[in-house]
Amino acid sequence: MKICPACSGSAVSPDWTCSGCGHRPPSLATGLPLLAPELAQSERAFPSSDFARLAELEDGNYWFRSRSKLIVWVLRRHFPGFASFLEVGCGTGCVLAAVEAAFPSAACSGSEAHVAGLAHAAKRLRRSALLQMDARRIPFRAEFDIIGSFDVLEHIEADREVLDQCFLALRSGGGVVLTVPQHRFLWSARDEYARHVRRYTRGEILEKLHSAGFRPVRVTSFVSLLFPLMLISRASSRRPAPGFDPEAEIRVGRLANWLLEAVLSFERWLIALGIRFPFGGSLLVVATRP
After folding, report:
1. Which of 37, 167, 217, 267 is the most exposed place for a label (fewest CB within 10 A)?
2. Is residue 271 part of a domain?
3. pTM for this structure?
4. What is the Cα–Cα distance from 252 to 257, expressed in whole angstroms?
5. How far apart (Å, rounded) are the C-alpha atoms in residues 18 and 28?
6. Contacts of residue 31, Cβ cutoff 8 Å, sequence gap at least 6
7. Ramachandran region of residue 46, left (φ > 0), alpha (ψ -120 to 50) or beta?
8. What is the CATH number of the domain that holds 259?
């Protein structure tokens, strides 16, 4: 069920016009509804110029490719036969494109606060519905089977509000799949460059999920087999310095990219076997709404 972003009423038409209060959100020439227009061009959480660079990197890069494959595996493992999926903070559509391809019968949607990201997502995606919205004000109630948010929560001060909204937007028995950066001791200039608010501890994200009403069913670190390399990299970049390259960890040569992806493929196989890593650069959490 759609919810009017102005009055929270439920009498909302397909074009988001509310028959209760008469509100109709503005839209782009493409028809994309702007449900949070005040954030559409905001540079606060993520610079608009970075979306173009992300779009260039994602499809061929070991880290993005491995994360997408892990997410697709998780959806198959924990939510077989799901009918609807919303990605909150879909960016340029990298993960959503993988979900589209893997689950052709599922209705897929993607949201992003910044229209620059959605412009790239629209070029990459084939059938997903896109909308611009504030993740802290998700305008749906009991609408989706699955909500995913991948390396998004760390950009948002009010992450509890986002999780509360995800809970309300899910159908009973549905679930969330989250990835977040992990370990506070890994904080470095790269986090500052990416405009992260935090790196999570396992206890912190689980407490926030429990508080929102979710029941966690799988928690594991990932990018764990590459953790020693990450420790070395982060130790050398605690503070920005002349010549600092924020993309050094992911912009690698062709052979290194292949080798690193092979390592993460092996790691994914171990996770599928039931191994739950206690440490790693990122944390994967799957939780359900009772």
Report:
1. 217
2. yes
3. 0.94
4. 6
5. 18
6. none
7. beta
8. 3.40.50.150
Structure tokens at 202: 């396992």
Could you please report the per-residue DSSP string of the chain?
-B--TTT--S-B-TT--BTTT-----B-TT--BBSSGGGTT--SSS-THHHHHHHHHHTT-HHHHHHHHHHHHHHHHHSTT--EEEEET-TTSHHHHHHHHH-TTSEEEEEES-HHHHHHHHHH-SS-EEEE--TTS--BSS-EEEEEEES-GGG-TTHHHHHHHHHHHEEEEEEEEEEEEB-GGG--HHHHHTT-S--B-HHHHHHHHHHHT-EEEEEEEES-TTHHHHHHHHHTTSS--TT--TTTTT---HHHHHHHHHHHHHHHHHHHTT--BS--SEEEEEEE--
Would you say residue 170 lies in a domain? yes
Confirm whether 267 is domain-assigned. yes
Domain membership flag for residue 1: no
* Tokens representing residue 58 in the block: 């994602």
Q: How many residues does the chain have?
A: 290
Domain count, the chain: 1
